Amino acid sequence: MKIVVMGLGYIGLPTAIMFANHGQEVVGVDVNANVIKELNTGKIHIEEPGLQAELDKALKDNAFKASLVVEPADAFIVSVPTPNHQDTLKSCDLGYVTSAVTSILPVLKKGNTIIIESTIAPRSTEDYILPLVESTGLVVGKDVFLVHCPERVLPGQIIHELIYNNRIIGGVTPACIQAGKAIYSVFVQGELIESAASTAEMSKLMENTYRDVNIALANELVHISAELGIDALDVINMANKHPRVNLHQPGPGVGGHCLAVDPYFIAAAAPANSHLIQQARHINSTMPKFIVEKTVALMNKLDGQKIAIFGLTYKGDIDDIRESPALEIYHELKAMARFDVVAYDPHVNASFVEKNMAKATEKADLVLILVDHSEFRDLRTQDLANMNQMAILDAKNIATKCVDMSHYFNLGLLSRINEVGSVLV
């Protein structure tokens, strides 16, 4: 079977390589010429454990190539970004998806299957993609097959989860469902769950919305506890000892191209009936501002001049900065021009990012931890010996080996900021 994968990003590339390493002929298509060149010379452009070895195998077997041009195939998988429109409820922008599908149509023939993996708003497959495909004169469900199969993988574990996670196969018709199942059964060992396309769309969105709402509850608890002088993290740990309670952990905000984006697609589709979802988005999207306010308050108490920010990605141990609250916090503190702000992140390659921890913390008054990278779990007091004042504001509760420091704060200890006096090393 020949498969064309449209979009070679964090999901499309691993998916393409996975099919290639399970006996299929795969062409990966992207609009970025540099990405195409790098992949064809054996270099991945994203950070994902194990992916380089998988690409090496696929290229060695001549099972994968990258291209700027769409070729005829048996199946087409669309895995392109779906950003937000800049309207009130940040609705789903289908532009990249419809552009990808449109580029497929000239080579589409009877018997082909088109699979949309991109996360899209409810009813997008039936209301927008279906008419586009049938504009060719081919009938979906009879001549060609149209399926929505949302990705459900965790960055850092994508290769494993592509194989073992359950997959929702959302077909426009029963025949479309069977066509989708035949394709994913090539390597998926999880359950292939049959569904209507619109149900599959909503299911993916609700998976991420559930987490966003739960995180918002934890973040609201942080606000309340800071006002009342209560340790929010202790509250969560104790509450979660109840057999039917599972509060999520708070943080500096919610990022990535899932949790920070998907709930808006539901809210925009049904604005009058999505009040809880909209409020959760408001709470989480304003957490960066809250962290900035607490950081400034702590720096004022310390009479400090320099902040070393640890972590810029939207989650730990990856290089992805999409919708990152940490990056938002960095830019906001930088824009104030009140402090010397230095960013340290061992996973991010950018000109403004310091790659050496000692240089980042030199003469710093505060380390602001915004991401739970593994490197920060082993942070010791001696690692920060070159600071001007040894203070930490840990928004991820990860630097637990430094808790002996009198000037250590996490999201459960924010009420203590008012008690701070300057402390010199």
Automatic annotation (TrEMBL):
Domain of life the protein comes from: Bacteria
One example of a Gene Ontology biological process annotation: polysaccharide biosynthetic process
Ranges for domain UDP-glucose/GDP-mannose dehydrogenase C-terminal: 308-401
Keyword Oxidoreductase: yes
Stored SMART domains: UDPG_MGDP_dh_C
Record keywords, A-Z: NAD, Oxidoreductase
A single GO molecular function term of this UniProt record: NAD binding
Stored InterPro entries: 6-PGluconate_DH-like_C_sf, NAD(P)-bd_dom_sf, UDP-Glc/GDP-Man, UDP-Glc/GDP-Man_DH_C, UDP-Glc/GDP-Man_DH_C_sf, UDP-Glc/GDP-Man_DH_dimer, UDP-Glc/GDP-Man_DH_N, UDP_ManNAc/GlcNAc_DH
Entry's family note: Belongs to the UDP-glucose/GDP-mannose dehydrogenase family.
Name of the protein in its database record: Nucleotide sugar dehydrogenase
Species classification: Bacteria, Bacillati, Bacillota, Bacilli, Bacillales
